[in-house]
Design a protein that fits this description.
This protein has seven helices and nine strands; from the N terminus they run αααβαβαββαβββαββ. The protein is of the alpha/beta class. The protein has a seven-stranded mixed beta sheet, sandwiched between helices. A two-stranded antiparallel ribbon has the order 6-7. The longest helix has 13 residues.
Length: 234
């Protein structure tokens, strides 16, 4: 995806809010509903995701409450965190993914929700969390919405709360790609821009890794995955 043309990166404090956006999720949940049973087979060996999950496990106290945004099938992250003894809550837009996650990680709690539902003053309040994991879930949003999603995550955490994020390094905005026989829309940033929007949103990056990942499927090309371990500043 690298090198595609995209709109300029907007700053988090540009005054945009959910009321000024038209949230278009058309086709996104349906695509993941269709591929749910094949997802983990197509995306094995998630070393970067497991490593970022280990950072959360090592950094959090016993019984911590952790939110897995875009929890998918619950593998590997929700299971990894639940096995560590944390109170895990997962959120995903796909009903099929939520169904599978409840089967694979019965000790966690999963909800079929949009991340936007959790915004301050939004329709759903799941309480506050000691940490949030968002592995490739913000990738599914248009760029105009990503700063708002980061504000929501900031709101869900206490000062000093932990945030593990992964994105694909790419200069794209709401760009349609083939995905396991379906079409999804993705967004991404070059690394300097991603650093800046996290800083604008009130997060300090404490650890960063990247991996070149090639899914076990022909229609998804290799991609540069970035994993950022962050802490809420205030």
């Amino acid at each position: 995806m690298r090198g595609r043309k995209a709109t300029p990166v907007s700053r988090v404090n540009d005054g945009a809010d959910y009321g000024s956006l038209r949230l278009d999720r058309s086709g996104q949940a349906e695509a993941f509903d269709a591929i749910g049973d094949r997802y983990d087979e197509a995306f094995p060996h998630k070393e970067g995701q497991v490593s970022a999950g280990e950072w959360l496990v090592e950094s959090l106290g016993p019984g911590s409450r952790v939110l897995d945004l875009g929890s998918g099938t619950g593998l590997p992250t929700a299971r990894q965190l639940a096995d560590a003894g944390f109170q895990v809550v997962g959120v995903d837009l796909s009903g099929r993914m939520v169904e599978l996650a409840r089967k694979y990680v019965p000790t966690a709690t999963f909800h079929q929700l949009d991340l936007a539902d959790l915004r301050p003053g939004g329709p759903t309040d799941l309480g506050r969390f000691d940490a949030v994991a968002a592995f490739f879930s913000l990738l599914m949003l248009p760029r105009a919405e990503i700063p708002l999603a980061l504000r929501t995550i900031h709101h869900l955490l206490p000062p000093g709360g932990l945030f593990a994020l992964s994105m694909v390094e790419a200069h794209v905005d709401d760009f349609a790609i083939p995905f396991l026989g379906n079409t999804i829309r993705v967004s991404g940033y070059l690394l300097d821009d991603l650093h800046r929007i996290l800083d604008d949103a009130g997060f300090e990056i404490v650890k960063e890794t990247s991996y070149t990942y090639a899914p076990a499927t022909a229609d998804v090309p290799p991609e540069e995955q970035v994993f950022l371990c962050c802490r809420r500043r205030d």
